[in-house]
Amino acid sequence: MKILIVGGNGTIGKKVSGHIGQNHEVVIAGRSSGDVTVDMADSGSIEAMFKTVGPVDAIVAIAGEAKWAPFDQMSEEDFYIGLKSKLMGQVNLVRIGQAFLTPGGSFTLTTGILADDPVDMTTSAAMVNGALHSFAKAVALELKDGQRINVVSPGLVEDAVEIYADYFPGHNPILMPKVINGYVKSILGKGGQVIRMYDNS
Amino acid sequence: MKILIVGGNGTIGKKVSGHIGQNHEVVIAGRSSGDVTVDMADSGSIEAMFKTVGPVDAIVAIAGEAKWAPFDQMSEEDFYIGLKSKLMGQVNLVRIGQAFLTPGGSFTLTTGILADDPVDMTTSAAMVNGALHSFAKAVALELKDGQRINVVSPGLVEDAVEIYADYFPGHNPILMPKVINGYVKSILGKGGQVIRMYDNS
Fold it and tell me: What are the chain B neighbours of A79 within 8 Å (beta carbons)?
């Protein structure tokens, strides 16, 4: 299989790329590095990326940003950072990517636990994640030729604990092998769903 | 109580306004009619509305639009109709409205069953509804002075059956007294949550 991983050099992305790359051809797209560069906030850039990469058997997004700030300091424009990048970036990846994804191929988007269990200062990030969960359910009704879509929604991931632990009081980290398995399930499995990987136990 | 109902002349809004207005002072805001006019897609218009209306004890949104179309006919701009109007319109209502809502006062936003159980051609509408569910959970962590937020998420509402029944095959209509009660619970109750009113029984 030929698999495009947008954000394949990021914190989660490099682990997923490394694992999947053992048995499959991985093409890494990144903002400033990788086999091809792409700006998730620019649909023209996404289109150019697909024209460069050509047909693929799986399209994975582990990319896109949203602003974290106290709600009473969030301007209208601040919200649009997440809407344009993490939300519409991933929507455009599906919208444009349909034509480049082989029959039965999979889309894998990335969100996170904030959609269901937000923490302080995440009005924008939570919103974007929740939007993608509902989008995926809706678009799954319309994808053609057996194309599938999953959303991987991890809790606080192990490799990001150092940066994010203070923002997620009491959240149990999700170990990287489990996070990787979410992507493996999406790409190599047959289903389409929101794959929640939370540890509240 | 003085209650601002944005969209108070719409299909759902007029029933809610009529019921609540029996015992409270209701100020209706609408796109082209009402006590005050407002364009939900324009934060400047929302700010002007609040300056005209002044302090209120409850802010209710039953307004905002999103485009319904097959996914493969949805342009990037088509998605922004819903993001600017129904999503950011309601977010801006909270963002700007905080300063005009009395302590303990409530925000009531409106979404719908598409967030959880979408139908054909609703990639944009489902996304917007899911975004608002997660936004409400996140912003509830940050509201001050006892301000509360609920989201009323009805299934196919009785008064819209004639227009929407064909789009919602097999969906049981939610009777108007139940729909109204969702808003009453939000405004007169003390809680803050996503109030789902679905009938899958």
Answer: 88, 91
Residues of chain B where predicted confidence (pLDDT) is lower than 50: none
Q: Residue A99 is which amino acid?
A: A
Whether the Cβ atoms of residue A8 and residue A15 lie closer than 8 Å to each other: no
Cβ-Cβ contacts under 8 Å, B98 against chain A: 72
- Report the distance separating Cα A147 and Cα B131, nearest Å: 24
Cβ distance A123 to B138 less than 8 Å, yes or no, reads yes
User: Which residue of chain B is at minimal alpha-carbon distance from A87?
Assistant: B127
Q: Name the residue facing A126 among B119, B125, B135 (closest C-beta).
A: B135
Option in A129, A141, A144 nearest B120 (CB)? A141
Which residues, in sequence order, are bridge partners of residue B6? Answer: B29, B61
Contact check, Cβ <8 Å, A138/B126: yes
- Inter-chain residue contact B134 with A120, CB threshold 8 Å: no
Which of A46, A92, A127, A141 has the most B C-beta neighbours within 10 Å, making it the best mutation to test the interface with B?
Answer: A127
Residues of A in contact with B84 (CB under 8 A): none
* C-alpha span between A56 and A9 (Å, rounded): 19
Can you say whether the dihedral through the CA atoms of A80, A81, A85, A90 is positive or negative? negative
Supply A32's token pair.
């400033």
At A129-169, the pLDDT tens digits run: 999 999 999 999 999 999 999 999 999 999 999 999 999 99
Q: What is the mean pLDDT of residues A11-27?
A: 98
For residue A69, give Cα distances in angstroms to A167, A171, B16: 11, 19, 35
Confidence band (pLDDT; 50, 70, 90) for A201? confident
- Contact at 8 Å (CB) between A197 and A50? no
Instruction: Strands of chain A (E only): list them.
Output: 2-6, 25-30, 36-37, 56-61, 101-110, 148-154, 194-197
> Does ipTM come in above 0.95?
yes
Token pair recorded at residue B33: 């009619």
In this structure, the dihedral spanned by the alpha carbons of residues B18, B20, B26 and B32, taken in order and rounded to 10 degrees, is: -40
| Chain segment A35-86, per-residue pLDDT in tens | 999 999 999 999 999 999 999 999 999 999 999 999 999 999 999 999 999 9
| Rounded Cα–Cα distance for residues A19 and A22 (Å) | 6
Chain B residues within an 8 Å CB radius of A141 = 118-120
